[in-house]
Design brief:
The chain is α/β, with parallel strands linked by helices and 192 residues long. It has a single domain, classed as 3-Layer(aba) Sandwich (Rossmann fold), CATH 3.40.50. Helices cover 40% and strands 15% of the residues. Strands 2-1-3-4-5 form a five-stranded parallel β-sheet, with helices on both faces. Helix 1 (19-30) crosses helix 5. Bound molecules: ligand FNR. Ligand FNR is lined by residues 13, 15, 18-20, 78-82, 115-117, 119, 121. Residues 13, 15, 18-20, 78-82, 115-117, 119, 121 line the site of ligand FNR.
Length: 192
């Protein structure tokens, strides 16, 4: 390995005390040395409209530049009304424009969804994947991560239960392998 892969970690909840962010912090802590994971914030992004893009808001420019600097994206999200929270969808839209200048193009990605309930955010997870197909982001297929009853993953504080640690570690290692694979293929494609 020559250098670390930079990963943008995008959290779909804007809530103080968010379970999703706690989960994302746990994933970052478990990430192997090949990944350099950092949060990229989305809470200050104005709602997307082409009108604003004539003079893009500073937060849009900041966000687009931060994504341009990374090699991969890890989305960690709750589910709102069986779909992607509006703030996260807005961030996807902001990054996708102006036309033909999408910051997402070709970036390997993974999706983790969570819920306090039994279904683990499956709807949000797959609606997000639908956008990622269009944005040409190769998404890790397995293991899938639909985390149900998220509070049960933690042992009271920030600590993970042993089962949760095992699962999340397996997931983030698979993501690291996926990022290496996709980035290597991309290098070969540009060189070849
Ligand atoms: C929710 N919640 C929710 N949960 C779920 O499993 N499926 C759903 O469709 C919804 N819908 C939904 C809509 C809206 C508008 C809100 C605010 C919440 C509950 C949600 O999963 C719960 O609030 C999580 O704790 C949110 O994650 P954070 O904020 O703790 O990271």
């Amino acid at each position: 390995m020559t250098s670390k892969h930079r990963v943008a970690v995008i959290v779909g909840s804007l809530r103080k005390g968010s379970h999703t962010r706690k989960l994302a912090r746990a994933l970052i802590a478990l990430a192997p040395a090949s990944l350099d994971c950092n949060f990229v914030e989305i809470g200050d992004l104005a709602l997307y409209t082409e009108d604003l893009d004539e003079t893009p808001p500073t937060a849009w420019t900041r966000f687009r530049e931060e994504i341009r600097r990374v090699d991969a994206v890890l989305f960690v999200t709750p589910e709102y009304n069986r779909s992607v929270p509006g703030g996260l969808k807005n961030a996807i839209d902001v990054g996708s424009r102006p036309p033909f200048q999408s910051v997402w193009d070709g970036l390997p990605a993974a999706v983790v969804s969570q819920s306090p309930y039994k279904l683990g955010g499956f709807g949000a997870n797959h609606h997000l994947r639908q956008s990622l197909v269009f944005l040409n982001m190769p998404v890790l297929q397995q293991p899938e991560a639909y985390i149900p009853e998220v509070a049960e993953m933690f042992d009271g504080q920030e600590g993970l239960t042993p089962e949760a640690r095992t699962f999340l570690e397996r997931f983030v290692v698979a993501f690291a392998d996926w990022v290496s694979l996709v980035r290597a293929a991309r290098v070969r494609a540009t060189e070849g």
